[in-house]
Amino acid sequence: MKRKSIISWPRTIEYLFYLFVFLLPWQTKLILRPSATNFNEISLYASQLVLVLVLVAFFIYKFRRRETTEKISWLWIFLAGLEICVLASFFWAPDQVLAFYHYILFLAAIGLFYLLREGIPDSEYEEGILDKTKVILTFLGSLFFQSILAVYQFLTQSTPVNKYLGLAGHPADLAGTSVIEAVSGRWLRAYGGMDHPNVFGGVLAVTLVLAAYLLARKKIMSSRREIAESIFLFIFYFISLFALFFTFSRAAWLAFAISLLLLLIIFLIQKDRWVIGRFLALLFFSAVMLFIAAAPYRDLCQARISGESRLEKRSIDERELYLLQSREIIKKNWLTGVGIGNYPTTLEHQDIEKKAIWEHQPVHNVFLLLWAESGIFALVFFAGFLLILIKKDRRTVFAGSFLIALLILMLFDHWLISLPFGIIFLFLVLGLV
Fold first, then answer.
1. CA distance 324 to 329
2. What pTM does this model have?
C-alpha cells in the first residue's frame, strides 16, 4: 500500500510562492560583494531565497507526479536558445563571478516563468497550484505599502532608512540622488523601497494597468471577499497613481498612458457596456486625481517634460552618450557580447579618462544591452520569445496592454535585465499575462 505523503506539495508551493511575491518589491539583502554601484554588486535577496525554495518544491512535485511531457513549443525553444547564449557569454566575461551571479538569476527567472505557465490553470474548470488573481493581489498588497512610502517621501522630501526592509537614504542635496531641479529648488523624486524612481515608476505603471483591468472587469460582487478585493483595488489604484506621479518617471508615465489607451480599445472591441462604462469612469477620476496632484507642482512638471533645465539636459546628453557607447561595444563584440552583467565593467576597463565608477551606466535600452552583453543570437531568441508570447499567448487578449507597458520600459530603460529585481519582475509579469 502506497504511503500518503506528509507534505502537501501543492499547498507548500502555493504559500511559499505568495511569500516570495510579497517579499519581491522589498530590497532586503545580504551583500556578498560590495560595490559602488548596484550593477557590480553581488547580493543575496530574501525574495531570492524563497524563490529557490519554491522552485525546488515545484520540481520535486513535478517529478513525483511523473506527468507525461507535452510537445515542446517554439516558446520554450526560443527561451532555451536565449539561455544557451547567456550561458556562453559567461566564458568571455571579464568578471566571471559577476557573470555567474547574473546567469543564476536568469535561470531562476526562467524557472519562475515555467512555474507560472504550468502552475496556473488556463480556465476555471482546470486544477492548478496557483490562483493568478491571488498572486496579483499579493504583489499589489506588498506594493501598496511602498506606494504610501513613496507619497510620504515626496511630500516630506525625506527617505526613512531601514536595513531590514532594504530602505536606503536618498538626501536631495547629495550628488547621485534622483531629483528634479526647478526654480523652487531641488526636489526628491519618489523611490518607494526600490533602487531608483524609474524602477519604482515602471513597476507601478504595469501594476496600475493590472489593477485597472481587474476593477473594470468586476461585475457582480456576491461575497464579502469580492467586495473586499474591489475596495482594496480601488484604494491601491488611486494611492499608487499619486505615487507614480511623484516618481516623475517619463518612461513610466508613457507606458501607463499608452497601456490604458490600448486597454480601452480592447474593451471597446469586446463591446461590453458594463466594463466600458466602469473603465471610462476610472479614466475620468484618474485624470481628476492627477490634475489635483500636478496643480501645486506645475513648475516640476514643466521642467520634467520640457527637458530645458540643467539636470534634464544633462540626463538627455548622458542617454545619447550611452547609446554611442553601446554602438562601439556592439561593433567590437556583436557576435558574442562582453558577458552577461559585464557591460559597466567593460566600460570601466575601456575608460581612459578614469571616470568615477558610478558614471559607467548601461545603455538605456534592454534590447541593445542584451545584444552588447550576450551577442546577436541572444537578441534574436529574446525577440522571438516575446513575439510568440504576444501572438500565441494562451491566456487572454488583454495581455497585450500589459506587454506594451513592458515593451516601452524596455525601450527606454535597462533595469529589467540589469538589476536582480528587474529580471525576476520581468518574467513574473510575462508568466502572469
1. 9
2. 0.94
